[in-house]
Q: What sequence folds into this?
């Protein structure tokens, strides 16, 4: 990798830049660039073009959003890519790798796990605000950067193929997990119902609402959302569901001690309050009925994806230790079970909230 060429392309002074690895994303590679001549910091990213087949489409989407937001909501804080003197924001190396740069938001920080209700509330309201701000944008103008990304039916089919054609030893090893996932296929049927009957409207959707994709400032005040690679037309259940998946439990998908996986109702309430308020007039009453389903949808899909990858010999997510994707899959299955157990309690929280906002 030639950092010098990348920096030169973006008109940054090579001699004054220090580059360090940064972040924990599974797909792209990220670094910080620190300028010691003016104290500016940037985020450099190599887009994984094996996953995102057309990084140009991501750039085009980000620019579309930026133009729309600048015009319609100029005070909304949106982090867009850095453009060089020629207006270009994507550097393509001789090896065909794609690089882009974002400014680092001064005094901001991100967290890797939700530590309190305020973080959950602020993050949920940032993701809701993002969708709400973009309601007026014609969603068909957005390019689909990852085809079938949250197409649960397809993920289920890929899982079914993996349990037939994947690594035989691993299939035998995971038979009880496979059985459980197959037994939950009602979640797929519900998704098909949503899709076929257009129960939920296609909107600008972030599709990766984990807590580390929100920047905070001050005392856990939500500042903006980042990681816009998967912003494309989608259903709101993707965004809400991934918040449930990644915020409700104090232990994340990497946790190997499954007893630490629990559902925190107070975090659920904070997400519901943070999300549903800005979305109150955006979502229809019928759409809102899928609020808790969103969690089942996303956790189930992630469990399928991790186990599928394990059965296919870890070709997608990679691994840091031998059974990494198996542990991740098991972790998500435990989380799904905990969510299913908590459903009545969570339903009650939603109803209480609906009643209190209806009175206002
Ligand atoms: C991937 O790279 P990262 O961490 O932002 C994945 C998400 C998964 C997540 C699980 C493009 O996101 O869908 O939920 O890992 N993104 C892609 O950690 O596959
Ligand atoms: Mg991401």
A:
């Amino acid at each position: 990798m030639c950092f010098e060429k990348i920096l030169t392309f973006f008109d940054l002074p090579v001699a004054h830049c220090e580059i360090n690895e940064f972040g924990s994303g599974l797909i792209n590679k990220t670094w910080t660039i620190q300028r010691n001549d003016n104290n500016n910091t940037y985020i450099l990213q190599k887009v994984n073009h094996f996953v995102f087949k057309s990084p140009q489409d991501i750039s085009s989407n980000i620019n579309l959003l930026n133009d729309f937001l600048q015009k319609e909501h100029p005070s909304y804080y949106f982090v867009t890519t850095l453009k060089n003197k020629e207006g270009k924001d994507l550097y393509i190396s001789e090896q065909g790798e794609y690089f882009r740069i974002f400014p680092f938001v001064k005094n901001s920080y991100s967290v890797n796990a939700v530590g309190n209700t305020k973080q959950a509330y602020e993050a949920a309201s940032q993701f809701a605000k993002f969708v709400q701000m973009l309601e007026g944008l014609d969603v068909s103008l957005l390019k689909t950067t990852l085809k079938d990304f949250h197409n649960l039916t397809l993920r289920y089919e890929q899982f079914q193929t993996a349990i037939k054609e994947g690594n035989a030893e691993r299939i035998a090893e995971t038979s009880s997990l496979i059985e459980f996932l197959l037994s939950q296929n009602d979640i797929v049927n519900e998704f098909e119902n949503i899709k076929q009957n257009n129960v939920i409207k296609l909107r600008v959707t972030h599709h990766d609402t984990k807590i580390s994709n929100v920047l905070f400032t001050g005392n856990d005040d939500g500042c903006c959302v980042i990681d816009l690679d998967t912003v494309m037309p989608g259903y709101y259940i993707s965004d809400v569901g991934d918040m449930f998946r990644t915020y409700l439990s104090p232990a994340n998908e990497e946790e190997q001690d499954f007893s630490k996986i629990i559902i925190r109702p107070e975090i659920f309430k904070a997400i519901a309050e943070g999300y549903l308020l800005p979305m109150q007039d955006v979502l229809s009453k019928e759409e809102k009925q899928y609020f808790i389903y969103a969690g089942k949808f996303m956790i189930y899909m992630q469990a399928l994806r991790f186990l599928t990858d394990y059965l296919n010999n870890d070709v997608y997510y990679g691994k840091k230790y031998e059974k990494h994707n198996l542990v991740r899959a098991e972790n998500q299955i435990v989380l799904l079970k905990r969510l299913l157990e908590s459903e009545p309690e969570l339903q009650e929280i939603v109803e209480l909230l609906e009643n209190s906002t209806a009175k206002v």
